[in-house]
Amino acid sequence: MARRLGLGDTGPEVQRLQALLTQRGYPVAADGAFGEETRAALLRFQAQHVDAHGEPLAVDGHTGEPTWWSLANPQPFVFHAPDIDFTRMPLPELGGSARGRHALSMALEELKAGAAEEGGSGRGPWVRKYLNGHAPEGSPWCAGFVSWCFWKDPSGPPFPYTVSARKLFGELGQRGWAHLSGEAYTPEPGDLVVWSRADGTEDHIGLVHHVAYGMLYTVEGNHGPRVAGFSYVLHTMERLLGFAQVPGP
Predict the structure, then answer these.
(1) Fewest beta carbons less than 10 Å away: which of 81, 104, 199, 210?
(2) Alpha-carbon distance 226 to 224, whole Å?
(3) Which domains does the chain have, with CATH numbers?
(4) Closest-CA residue to 208 (of 132, 108, 115, 127)
(5) pLDDT digits (tens, 9 = 90+) for 97-123
(6) Whether 38 contacts 203, CB under 8 Å
(7) Is 66 within 8 Å of 59 (Cβ atoms)?
(8) What's the pLDDT at 199?
(9) φ, ψ dihedrals at 15, nearest 5°
(10) pTM of the predicted protein model
(11) CA-wise closest residue to 94 among 35, 56, 37, 43
(12) Are 162 and 134 in contact (CB under 8 A)?
């Protein structure tokens, strides 16, 4: 019987756990010490997987027999996702930085308020608020929406205000906050997600709501005429450039 592991444990079995978590897409250093990083990765894994009977795992940060089984048996399973309530914040155990989660909370308030274009594409008072004088009405406003959400942080803006998704992703990459498509990284609530557009003219950016059962759920502006929630199969996303997490404060 596999050992039940938890915070503070050390040894080869902890290294085995860490290696399995990394293999399953929840990267963590295999140092043999069950610390907060390992616990956070395990909580995310448990929140998104089922046991041998198809039942959700207990999200408790310990490796009971059901969790060991799920870690060792990563075969796909069929999950019928419930309707996602994009107006509610994701559970704390799904992770996310404090700044990212605050930005996401602001995005959800805008969604609930009905933020949308008015009077034509890229026009209206909501869009003008997000463009914030950085571009004329009629311009793409997805990055302006994301910038506005992060600039509402009470600790101050974490990056320069911009209405360019490409410029914003480049800025975050220079700071070491970005994870390019193909890297072993599991996005968390409040992360930024960036795509290239099919015509190559400009990129598109949104906020991660959460990841569950191989699905990515996002909140985006300018993916259509209003702020809204969207869902994607995480590992088959076309033109995905990557993710970024704004740390701190």
Answers:
(1) 199
(2) 6
(3) 12-72 (no CATH), 92-244 (3.90.1720)
(4) 108
(5) 999 999 999 999 999 999 999 999 999
(6) no
(7) no
(8) 60
(9) -60, -40
(10) 0.69
(11) 43
(12) yes
Give the pLDDT score at 200: 59
Q: What are the residues whose beta carbons fall under 8 Å from the beta carbon of 215, sequence distance 6 or more?
A: 81, 231, 232, 233, 234
List Cβ neighbours of 85 (8 Å cut-off, separation of 6 or more): none
The DSSP output letter for 181 is T
Strand order in the sheet with 215-220: 178-180, 240-244, 192-196, 203-212, 215-220, 228-233
**Residue 37: which H helix or E strand, with range?**
helix 36-47
Residue written as tokens 């960036």? 194
CA distances from 24 to 19, 70, 77, 189, 249 (A): 9, 10, 14, 19, 29
**Euclidean distance between CA atoms 166 and 174, whole angstroms:** 12
pLDDT tens sequence across 1-43: 678 999 999 999 999 999 999 888 788 999 999 999 999 889 8
Torsion of CA 218, 205, 178, 174, to 10 degrees: -160
